[in-house]
Amino acid sequence: MADAEPTEKTYNPRMHSGGKLSFRGRQQDGDDDAGEFLVIGGDDPPPLALLVPTGFRHVEIEIGPGKGAFVLAATEAKPDTFVLGIEAAPAYASLAATKLRKSGRDNGRFLVDNGKLFLTDRVDDAALDAVHVYFPDPWPKRRHAGRRFFTEDVPGIVARTLRDGGYLYVATDNAVYAGQIVRVLGHAEDFVRDEAEERRVRALGAGHAFSPTNFERKYIEEGRVIRRYAFRRLARGGAAAEVAP
Description:
Blueprint: E1 38-40, H1 48-51, E2 58-63, H2 69-77, E3 81-87, H3 90-103, E4 108-112, H4 115-121, E5 128-134, H5 154-161, E6 162-172, H6 175-186, E7 191-193, H7 195-204, H8 214-221, E8 227-233
Parallel strand pairs: 1-4, 2-3, 2-5, 3-4, 5-6
Antiparallel strand pairs: 6-8, 7-8
């Protein structure tokens, strides 16, 4: 039997109004229950330190995992790494978390929250080995540009959470947004583009970086150009070089 609809619709202040996302959890039944693999963030999501089981020295986050293809592949490819997917859409997060539960692997979770805010106020300094952001919404309308993930404040937010030598991995099919990403990160004093790393992780195969995602599969079939970047977090006090699109 489905849950009763709430009498009033409430929205989480951690989400922008355009997303129209509420965080009312739906209890699932039987084999579709995501269980502990799905965390509904709500107004006060738990910090990263409480989500990572004991015994994991390596922790990575994917912002916007959608149906979870990359997180599922990463938990299989890197069993010694804990991978947290932060997804704004509860339905996608629930679907992905259920798949992860059925896999039998315990080195991942999915959290419903605003990814940028979670990095800002729920992750300790130098806690992450990597942050993955694949095919973020380009918000093409000018009035929505502020909703993009890669705004001017992002280098500082991500740099604080990454250990020295950690990576921010990015992929997009949108040429205009790619230009913005490269400009924002290319002028960031804490990052430098690492093309050797881009080649290395692609050669390693699924679950290491960039691949697989449902958008990637779709865009490859459509013949779109996909731009992939790896930005290395410099040692504290280091300097970054310019990068080109």
